[in-house]
Amino acid sequence: MPDRLSTLDASFLYIEDSVTPMHVGGVAIFDRPKSGFDYEQFLALIGQRLGYLPRYRQRVATVPGHLARPVWIDDVDFDLNYHVRRSALPAPGTDAQLFELVARLMSRPLDHERPLWEAYFVEGLAGDRVALVTKTHQSVVDGVGTIEIGQLILDPSPTEREPATDTWTPRRAPGRTQLLLDAVGETVQSPGALVENVRSASHAISAAEKFVGAVGTTVASALRTVTRPAPSGPLNTQVSGGRVFSVVRTALEDFRQVRAAHGGTVNDVVLAALAGALREWLLSRGSSMTSETTVRALVPLAVIDEETVEFSSASLVGNQVDAYLVDLPVGEPSPVLRLQHVGHAMAEHAASGRSVAARALLRVGGFAPATLHSLGARAASSFSGRLFNLVITNSPGPQVPMYAGQARMTEMFPVMPLLRNQALAIGVTSYDGGVYFGLNGDRKAVSDVDVLAGMIEDSLDELKGIDW
């Protein structure tokens, strides 16, 4: 039987275009160890572990006439050097130069004629650091059969080079005739699928309409929360092909202190800090605002499979990351009340009994946030853009150092994709005592994303400075 893409995965390919590439990214920064860490070592590390991720050596084959969804086939011309690329900044490279490079890399769609991922080994950073930039298409990562490649290459302790034992041999690619015969055979068993496949591919109908069957539970749970369109504002506009990327570095202890003083969760404090920053950013742009003004965030949250007693990585399938809609109270001038509003809004999810505590997520092997952000992007893409203003994903990571080979990772920034008519996406990851924000914005609509990044730090300082 052909390894056919699911309806959800195929939809990510259908709705992708040159200005809204459907890949999720990550930027990991490493200190170069005394023993060295170069491109060849990184290439070898990925090559040694690709055997655990067969999907990363497969490409998509389209069925003629779109009589069925595309299929995954082995890439008989797979070239690891094509996917793992070497780049460099003019030494000593600055963080600003790195993030400008990240913005340019993320704006480019992946080649659909090859396996849908890329990794860049970036040298030349000041302080003898290197960066790893990854791009993985949303159709690839499902959290069960395939995880994000950043999760595969990171370990909780330094590792020596593994012996090369992978003897992968690609299977022969099916020809057009075989693809058609397989599709016809499936159509005989399910005639209605033929009409749906042709219509979906031809018209690329909206994600919200297409994905109801695949993630109906998630969509229904969010729609119970809010049914009216999202507030209008500068965050909802036709995006261009360019991107800007900025980051924020904060300390996890600061969020814990605010939580300890007021209750709630670290995630509540993160959202409250973002609400305060968005308030100041909108005011700086001259946006009109009242005490009732809100910005609606789509916040994907990991949940437990209803048939699973205890959380495990196996329960992190695409429709087990609920996309929760939260109205951030940007019109509220008091940071105390903003935090209370956010805590109240998130309480329903916590009371559902399906939420996954941060400590449970940390039991997942490798650097799970890389995969969880990908699953969050999948969940977010299943909604009509009319329902929200921006996407915010927050995934807790391990509070111990992680390593790629002998190189210690010091920072990790998620890069969430922009959806059509959404000009800003924010990914948040906690790791080894820090909380790291990655802000991906449209180059025309949110050219001042670095200003917003600075306001996140100011908003957190405001929360910390409150006399409780």
UniProtKB/TrEMBL annotation:
Residues annotated as domain O-acyltransferase WSD1 C-terminal: 318-464
Pfam families listed in its UniProt record: WS_DGAT_C, WS_DGAT_cat
Keyword Lipid metabolism listed: yes
Metabolic or biological pathway, per its Swiss-Prot or TrEMBL entry: Glycerolipid metabolism; triacylglycerol biosynthesis; Lipid metabolism
Top EC category: transferase
Keywords assigned by UniProt, alphabetized: Acyltransferase, Glycerol metabolism, Lipid biosynthesis, Lipid metabolism, Transferase
Coiled coil: none
Stretches assigned to the O-acyltransferase WSD1-like N-terminal domain: 5-270
GO CC annotation: plasma membrane
Family: Belongs to the long-chain O-acyltransferase family.
Name by which UniProt lists this protein: Diacylglycerol O-acyltransferase
